[in-house]
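User: Is it possible to get a 3D structure for a protein together with its bound compound? The compound here is NDP. I've pasted both below.
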Amino acid sequence: MAKVALITGGMGGIGTSICKALADAGYTVVTTYSKPGKEVEWLASGKEAGYSFHAYQCDVTDFDECVALAGRITADVGPVDVLVNNAGITRDASFKKLDKVNWDAVIKTNLDSVFNVTKQFVDGMTERGWGRVINISSINGQKGQFGQTNYSAAKAGMHGFTMALAQEVARKGVTVNTISPGYIATDMVMAVPEDVRNKIIAGIPVNRLGKPEEIAALVAYMASDLAGFMTGANVAINGGQHTC
Ligand code: NDP
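Assistant: Yes, that's possible. Here is the predicted structure of the complex:
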């Protein structure tokens, strides 16, 4: 039977490519969305392209919704073997202007969600002796970014989580890794004003934004059997931007 992969926020720019790459690699693909309505068109366009994805509504900031999600996926599709914690938001403001609402929203969506969702599935992975947890972080969790104390803190926190959990589950056949993408051509980045975006591109040695498929290919590798020796890693994929 095909292994099951769950991608949170899989209807976004990077998430859609991850769903396709894992389906192409033979996984049964399940995703979540928080805003109802968008799933109808997304599922239909996936079907047109030959994919049959499963989709569930779940706000990943809400622990109880994640408990319910796990019950539904396990009953409908089967136990989850690969979890990609991909859901994320930005709410940028200089620290002087950053308020508690936007601090909390970003920490809850990017970091608390990793606890909320991983908690539902990792015990099953260790019991079955195989699993993959892949956390989509960001270059800005590695180097910081003006206007993103909230996002940089959450994304750096994801990797702390990765390193610790990787040690706890390594002997049970489960790997836990972080991917830290640089700037990728998705709505999140295309929403940045053009002049700012051009400055961003000028600072990328390969002189272009990354493509979602380039992140998805790395996810597919990390999800594979061949990646069993990679755990606790934080893999940068950013067009050559320096990170320390
Ligand atoms: P998108 O905005 O396209 O996708 C984000 C996804 O997260 C959406 O599908 C959204 O679903 C989901 N999401 C947001 N809040 C919640 C919530 N509370 N519960 C459930 N799902 C939620 O972003 P990208 O595809 O660009 O980004 C994907 C990941 O990659 C993010 O974690 C981002 O931080 C990271 N990243 C992106 C980079 C880029 O350049 N684009 C660079 C580095 C990292 P819905 O709309 O239904 O809420």
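The domain at 4-237 is CATH 3.40.50.720 (Rossmann fold). Residues 100-128 form the longest helix (29 residues).
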